[in-house]
Design a protein that fits this description.
By secondary structure, the protein is an alpha/beta fold. It has one domain (52-277): von Willebrand factor, type A domain (Rossmann fold). Helix content is 44%, strand content 17%. The chain is globular and about 60 Å long.
Length: 283
């Protein structure tokens, strides 16, 4: 990461702290562990390239640990992720949504990019602004998702939420209203974190939870992990936790619930606040 980009990330985080969004403990977690390069890797499109006056940032962090493959859930996870993107693309608010997907071990599938872009050929033919799916939005498939790593859940959740916050702050400082919907997916408890624990994650989650942010989590049953306890210790509210059983149909249903929530939250600020308060129960 260049010095200018590193400085930009630090400035965004410091501004969030000075404005009261980010606590001193969270700021420390995001700065002392030298994760600025990881945050920057997913920042994606600049604010100046986005024409909307109000945006929704939909972010998914997908487990790529070996247990996903050993449990036979690769296709279910791929398909679930892709269906979320398709549902959002079909919504009326698609042109105001930015999406970003990364994997639990740090790989960026694609950084923040608009879900839909102006259909230039159509605009030239008719003069009407219509939107088409953005080809920079990457669907998961066997060539780009082969889960075979560990489970650094706490370390990477801190990176993820730092990125969400930095992108949100970037829009806010440009006068663009932003709201965020984030999904953390795992099929196991933390095993490989080296820098952060539940304390750092909880601090960030509690800072972000409010009128402009939704943080959801999905724990695919592995027969031994109490995911509600895991996510509760991370600060994630019970109403935003899904615990599907280890079956394709249940995993698909869980993704559908997240998709419905994200679509509803994108409609308007009033819908967002209602969804944020009610969790998955209102879907």
């Amino acid at each position: 990461m260049s010095n200018s980009k590193a400085k930009q990330i630090r400035t965004l985080l410091q501004s969030a702290h000075e404005e009261g969004t980010l606590s001193a403990e969270s700021l420390q977690a995001l700065t002392v562990n030298n994760i600025g390069a990881q945050i920057e890797a997913g920042m994606g499109v600049s604010v100046g390239q986005v024409q909307s006056s109000e945006v929704i940032l939909v972010t998914m962090m997908v487990d790529d640990s070996g247990s996903i493959r050993f449990s036979g859930n690769c296709d279910a996870v791929r398909n679930g992720h892709n269906e979320v993107l398709k549902s959002l693309t079909a919504s009326r608010q698609a042109h105001d949504i930015l999406v970003h997907t990364c994997y639990l071990n740090g790989h960026i599938l694609f950084p923040y990019v608009p879900l839909a872009v102006v259909n230039e050929p159509q605009l030239k033919r008719t003069g009407k602004v219509e939107y088409a799916p953005n080809l920079e939005v990457v669907m998961m498939d066997a060539s780009n998702y082969d889960p075979n790593k560990g489970t650094p859940l706490y370390d990477q959740t801190v990176v993820l939420l730092g990125r969400v916050l930095a992108k949100y702050q970037e829009f806010a400082e440009s006068g663009v209203t932003a709201r965020t919907v984030t999904l953390i997916l795992t099929d196991g408890a933390d095993e490989n974190s080296r820098r952060c624990g539940t304390r750092e994650v909880r601090s960030l989650v509690e800072d972000l939870l409010g009128e402009q942010h939704i943080i959801a989590a999905m724990g695919i049953d592995n027969g031994s992990t109490d995911f509600r306890k895991v996510f509760r210790e991370m600060g994630i509210r019970d109403e935003w936790v899904l615990t599907p059983s280890n079956s394709n149909s249940e995993i698909r249903k869980a993704f559908q619930m997240f998709s419905q929530s994200a679509v509803q939250a994108s409609r308007a600020s009033a819908y967002f606040h209602q969804v944020a308060a009610g969790g998955f129960s209102i879907c």
